Amino acid sequence: MMKRGVKKVFFPKWKSLARSSLLFLGIILISSWKIRTENRHLLRQHSLWERPLWQRPLWEHPLWGFFGHQRINRLAVFTLPPEMFKFYKKHIDFVTENAVNPDQRRYAVKEEAPRHFIDLDNYSDSLRKKLPTYSWKEVTEKISEDTLNRHGIVPWHINFMKFQLTEAFRKRDVRRILMLSADIGHYIADANVPLHTTRNYNGQLTNQVGIHGFWESRLPELFSDNYDFFVGQAEYVKTPQKRAWQAVLGANAALDSVLVFERELTAQFSEDKKFGFDERNGITTKNYSKDFSERYHAMLKNQVERQMRASIKMVGDFWLTCWIDAGQPDLTQLLSYQPTKEEKDADDAEKKSWLRRVFDVRKEGDN
Prior knowledge:
single chain; mainly alpha; two-stranded antiparallel ribbon; globular; disordered N terminus
């Protein structure tokens, strides 16, 4: 089933993707305006945010980007056993398109931003070794929630999402199953990104601003068509929080290569050779050149592919685990579900509300 399924992978209709993209761009534009007009004294501390988004090159935009998150969620469907596959295949466009919801909420919901990252280098070596052993209750007894949120909580949040999705399966709440499946896929993918594990999340501390979008969006868009996404069947996860921490620590172990190789390669390229210009939808934007990207991608030796594969497998594993822990409900009984007009209207209203509720969050090159 797996091989047959991979051949059938298609992306959602361009109109749905366009609507999602335009909505997110609207959120980012309003966020950028609010940041620029209300927080100038803070922006001057970070050169990345001295210019509004529409004046910055594409690789600095907070857009794994739309492409990576959506592909990861979509391909995770093909790791599932037959008992789950038919249900998820029917709703594959939903879990694909809504893979970016957490990024969209990130600019409208104050609590959202810390769920996408964890700055391991903000903790001492001794504490960093203990963090994976603490439940959320235990860690909040030792460290204030304000501190935890400031440094990011992604591994704990993945575990929290696991319990929510399990409960949705148990209640056979189709709408919630789909929404939480899309969301947990996003957080899992983020946990597998090296630059989501450090306070130097966009190279702003090492004069490498833009590297976040370069690694997470530019490289996958250029090279992922040649990646091997056959990751095998989903497997049960005995200890979800431990698995989440394994992902974070594995991504963090790759961080040095991400930064060091880019710096070494930059020394070999002049500015006009390192960057070029792309035209998208009639707009010319500055971007990393194809030559620089190819050289960097080769130096990383399939690192981006490995992290995408790890994300796909882990998303499938967690979906399966939640279903099993819920008692393996018969999903064929849920196949008749179709969102009502009221549900669709509620979804649209919520997403539109994100445009009106923009808060200040950690400013990354990507999410």
